[in-house]
Amino acid sequence: MKTFFDQVYALVKQIPSGKVVTYGQIAKKLGTRDARRVGWALHANKEDSGVPCHRVVNQKGGLAINFAFYGDMEQRRRLEEEGVSFSEKNLVDLKKHRHVFKE
């Protein structure tokens, strides 16, 4: 059986380039309300794992200040490279870029 962290990574790998999901979306998909635990899983992920952790944002579209790989500006750079747009408040436009997992 896969660990919780492995389940998180499997879902994050499903997020297409140019799209994002929230910690809460992942938690809900895994049958929990513990979005913080999702964050712990992503923070523990290794950079060369192939898991696009930069595609996960908070419920408002905010970046992770403690993004594991060089901070929130690196997360923003990676998202912009994929075509993700931001508001003047440094939030991802969730209406445009939110990915919805299939049921």
UniProtKB/TrEMBL annotation:
Top-level lineage group: Bacteria
GO BP of this protein: DNA repair; methylation
Alphabetical list of InterPro entries matching this protein: ATL_DNA_repair, MethylDNA_cys_MeTrfase_AS, MethylDNA_cys_MeTrfase_DNA-bd, MethylDNA_cys_MeTrfase_DNAb, WH-like_DNA-bd_sf
Any GO molecular function: methylated-DNA-[protein]-cysteine S-methyltransferase activity
Span of domain Methylated-DNA-[protein]-cysteine S-methyltransferase DNA binding: 4-84
Transmembrane residue ranges: none
UniProt keyword Nucleotide-binding, yes or no: no
Swiss-Prot/TrEMBL catalytic activity: a 4-O-methyl-thymidine in DNA + L-cysteinyl-[protein] = a thymidine in DNA + S-methyl-L-cysteinyl-[protein]; a 6-O-methyl-2'-deoxyguanosine in DNA + L-cysteinyl-[protein] = S-methyl-L-cysteinyl-[protein] + a 2'-deoxyguanosine in DNA
Alphabetized UniProt keyword annotations: DNA damage, DNA repair, Methyltransferase, Transferase
Keyword Amino-acid biosynthesis (UniProt): no
Annotated Pfam families: DNA_binding_1
Protein name as it appears in the record: Methylated-DNA-[protein]-cysteine S-methyltransferase DNA binding domain-containing protein
Species of provenance: Candidatus Beckwithbacteria bacterium RIFCSPHIGHO2_12_FULL_47_17
